[in-house]
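COMPLEX REQUEST
Ligand: magnesium ion
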Amino acid sequence: MLNKERKKGKKSNGMFPAKISKTAQQSIPYKRIYDDHNTNGGIIEVKDGVFSKSYYISDASFSDIGEVEQDRILTSFEKTLKTFDTDISYQITINARNIDKEKYNKMILLEYKDDEDEYNKLRSEHNQILLDKMKEGKNNIKLEKYLTINVESKNIEEALVKFENIENDLHIKFKRINTEGLKPLSIAERLEILHDIYNLGKEDNFDINYDPVEIRKNGLTSKDVIGPTFLDFSDRKKSQIGDNYVQVLFLRKIPSSIAGDLMNHLSSIPGNMLLSVHYDAQAQEKAVSFASNQVTAIGGEVVKQQRKLTHSGAMPDLISPKLATERQDAEDMLDGLQNQDKRLFKVTLVAAIFAPTEKKLNELVAQIQSKAKERIMALEVLTGMQEPGLVAALPLGLNPIPIYQVMTSDVASAIQPFSTIEVKSKNGFYYGQNAISKNLIIYNRSEELNQNGFILGSPGSGKSFIAKEEMYQVFLKMDNAQIFVLDPEQEYTILAKELNGQVFSIEPGGENYINPLDLDITKDKDGDPVAQKIDYIISLIERMLGGRSELSGYAKSAIDRALTDLYQPYIADLNKRGITIDRAICPTLKDLYNVLNARKEAEARNLAANIRIYCTGTLNLFAHHTNINIDKKMIVYDTSHILASNLQELGMQICLNDIWTRMVANRKREVRTWFYVDEAHLFLKMPSSAAYLSMVWKRARKWWGTPTFITQNVGDLLRSAEGNDILSTSDFAIMLNQAPLNKAALSEMFKISEDQQDYFSNVGSGEGLLFLQKSILPFFNHFPENTKLYKILSTKPKDAELIEKPSEMEDE
Ligand SMILES: Nc1ncnc2c1ncn2[C@@H]1O[C@H](COP(=O)(O)OP(=O)(O)O)[C@@H](O)[C@H]1O
Ligand SMILES: [Mg+2]
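STATUS: Structure written out below.
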């Protein structure tokens, strides 16, 4: 993901690289490249008739889940390995890269705005918090993981057919582990990876808009574009590539069982490296005969030793422990192949370490070697084979070194690439830290296809707090955005005031009016806006009547007729003026009441009488033309004053409808609408208002809306069909501390493993699980209390008091 982001910034500078030397050309191990075929990935012909394709493997949780889940992943990976063909090469590569600190900071920190903006102090405080948190993780290392497959074919067409057959199956197999499966790399992406390996420290020179035709016209080849300026393989133990030293190591010794995080463990050194594993699947008959030869050979050795022992008068059972283990291993292998459906692999693991100085190189090599030792393994320098070693490390599927370990599929499955999900998207917001790696979680919901989200947690778990964290980042970062909050508990007023926003208090006898009949006639494929409005008003009236039962068919049609009549002249007027809404002249509830009351039929007059209090009586706060003028970036509807009877639900619904109307208008001026419904269970009490909320959730995306549903009442949510709809149509969720019952219910619904459940029960404020695009990530968000931002975000009364005295704050 990061790779893609980084490239976007690169612009063509119209310059072409110089031709690289013939020797450097020859050291780049491929013949020719093919442009992306139907955009389904780039193919490189690495040798005549050998075609190579690479896939990006997105990560999955491994280190942060318990043994049961880890076993599941290893079993899935073993199943994947078992589908590997004997005449195809498979390679998995971890590409670990140091990220330039400045660039990284630029990606995650808030950018300062010019002097007119009075918020730079807040930005600076936010940035400092992030810089402090960064010290706890390894944020300056970026890991990318690839699968590379090589097939032999007569020509590219035949190769493409082969790839198609293999990749569908593999995609499904990987999807079971990482939910995203495999993503083919384009030819430009593959060339960029190679370029960045050969030109460490000069990554910016690669032009992603690279056009092979243009390059050829200039008498150059792709190798001129990606190659290093200088290559030297004369030293038997290390090489020089451009400005860097490189040393390639191989795995020589391996114990009979391996912990499942080997690749992750080895790649965690703080430097640039390529860690590549080649899995060479062996045909079953060959494997069995290999294993039985092994058993026979060791058997011979055992007999020899036994003879010696008998000669010296010792017991023949006392063969050396080493030989006994070897015999056991060989017998197990044979048994596994013959009776347990295991497969045999020749596995080659190489690590190429890159560093700008020899001293640094030696340090890094010592570090990775000691990492291997911790796991009773040996990583050794490939003396005299540095050049083929580097070829084996590059993500080109080639393995020219004749060194391998023989292992069965169950053991080989431990050499798998998954570790933990790291989330970093450009233009992202900070949500906290990965609970395992402590790396920052930087994510941008609004760039995903589905932006719906929810926040669940017991009272005090930090729901409103983390929602406010997101809001202030939207505010400080995004230019074309507007933030709306439905706030039944007065928790957002401090933030809104601080951000120069508007707070509208909705109360009887108050000054702020919202007219629920406001109608924007912008057409929408999903239905006629007038019909939708009428449905909505009917549900509102049901709510006014107590919501115990649906309105009769007669009452519904009476309302329908009345509203149709009322809207007719309004719409005609709008059409004449070429606009889609005019709040000043839109009909109101009072007009509706008057029309119903003027009808001859007793039933219509009866209905009018029943809703009179909301239209002309004391609760008529929703029966006026809208008078609130919304021009600020953050808007809070404070409904805390209408707790009485069913007014609060009614008020929340009317405010949400107002947000909807404003979102439609925002979309037209290309402004994204972020809106938050706190204490959202208030919507789930009645089927009609729940249905309204779920409609809003389903359709917000179309109007560039990013909605967030916040509640502590998980039980209500799970019991309601609409609640379930909302949960299942959201791709973003924050689950903070949960009560035991809710923990069980949510775990079942979201398939949260037992080990992951520990991260969202009995935890502190701001700790829990993050759901991003269906992957689950344990996280924590510990906001430092000695900051101004904390005081703005916190709802604890004592924190709020502090903020009333700005002079005190300045002195801190
Ligand atoms: N991420 C956090 N870091 C530090 N303190 C927090 C965090 N989240 C919550 N708190 C503290 O807990 C209090 C309650 O949080 P709040 O968001 O109001 O809970 P909820 O909305 O879930 O009931 C906050 O006022 C704040 O003092
Ligand atoms: Mg709250």
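REMARKS: Residues 284-311 form the longest helix (28 residues). The chain is about 45% helix and 20% strand.
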